[in-house]
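Long-time lurker. I teach an intro course on protein structure, and each term I like to show students one example going from raw sequence to a predicted 3D structure in token notation. This year I'd like something fresh instead of my usual example. Would anyone be willing to generate the tokens for the chain below so I can use it in lecture? Attribution to the forum is fine with me.
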Amino acid sequence: MRSRPLLFALVLLIAFPLSFAQNRVTTGKPQPPAVLSAKTIAFVTCFPGAQADEMKQQATAFFTKWKRYHVVPDPQQADLVVLLGPIPGYVSESNFRDVLSGHSPAKFAPPAATPAAQAAAPDSPPLFTVFDGPASRAPETHHFRSLWAHSLDESKVALSANDFKSYVSRSAENYNGNGFNFQVCQMLHTAFC
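-- Reply from a regular --
Happy to contribute to a lecture. Here you go:
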């Protein structure tokens, strides 16, 4: 009877290193979600003038206080890029990479935006949208997929940012490679690989 627990323990000791070794061979080091591995964050917005500055200041204040990510001014240097606000309807998919890189969407506006043209290409609703910075800068990226998005009350960035903070906390608790959270996976990977 004592041999069953011993056999089970032996199987576990063999299985875990092998599963990590297989993961290392096929995919390299186990990768956490971008929101967990990111170190830096930047903010871009499509709001005009003073409203854009206010949104960025609110976001910067929240993330500086949180201390999870280091806020950088240049989206080109950020691991995560947060788009605050609506995306103007005239920004095409081919220009979207430039917007995420920090260029003003006004640069892409048609010379004479008539009311009919504006109605044909309405702005998106205001959102707090998080993108993987390196993936959004990759030349082979043609379809941009957000990591997380939430509706944005234009006067209260902190509400959406706090929801993102909760999402990151839940991701850290729930991320697993083999049924373990992120911290345990890192420890096991370091020990066995």
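Some talking points for your students: The longest strand covers residues 40-45. The longest helix spans residues 3-27.
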